[in-house]
Write a structure and sequence with these properties.
Blueprint: H1 4-12, E1 26-29, E2 38-41, E3 45-46, E4 50-51, H2 53-56, E5 64-68, E6 70-74, E7 78-81, H3 86-94, E8 98-102, E9 118-122, H4 124-133, E10 139-140
Parallel strand pairs: 5-8, 8-10
Antiparallel strand pairs: 1-2, 3-4, 6-7, 6-9
């Protein structure tokens, strides 16, 4: 499952089963007849760390948030990715059990003529420290590319 742009990229890499999700869509992953599966919901907002806080305020809690945790700017001026301050805001708004970072330095290689002009601020350890200072129970798991991630979520079913 991916955004329209992400679905194009995944298809260009040869993935044959790609489901496109528009902003605000909800789908179930792994649902079979008679079962609900894992609900996946996309949110309104720019793809690089500019969420619609007004919309997110209406959602309550979620289990997992995937978001940038670092700011990446061009020459320290023009934002490319905003995550340093957005990730803690998302944790406060949505109270997820787990957060997974995207666009993290050290896990992504930037190359080309403008790569030297990209500046990084924040990151996983910065966000983790900020959440700890606010006594948040949200865990941050930094995945390794190509490796499965075990989330170990607590059941949120209310009887």
């Amino acid at each position: 499952m991916a955004s329209p742009d992400g679905a194009k990229v995944a298809s260009s890499f040869g993935y044959s089963s790609v489901t496109t999700l528009e902003h605000g869509d909800t789908r179930s992953l792994g649902s079979e007849e008679g079962t609900s599966g894992l609900p996946i919901q996309t949110f309104v907002g720019a793809p690089h760390g500019d969420p619609d806080a007004e919309h997110l305020n209406t959602l309550g809690t979620v289990d997992v948030v995937i978001t940038p945790m670092a700011d990446i700017t061009l020459m320290g001026i023009a934002p490319v990715v905003r995550g340093k301050d957005i990730a803690p805001q998302l944790a406060e708004l949505l109270n997820p059990q787990v957060m997974l970072p995207t666009a993290e330095a050290g896990k992504v290689e930037y190359s080309g003529i403008i790569s030297a002009a990209l500046k990084l601020a924040g990151g996983v350890e910065d966000v983790r420290s900020r959440l700890k200072a606010k006594h948040s129970n949200t865990r941050i798991i930094q995945p390794t590319s190509g490796e499965p991630v075990e989330l170990n979520l607590k059941s949120t079913v209310i009887a």
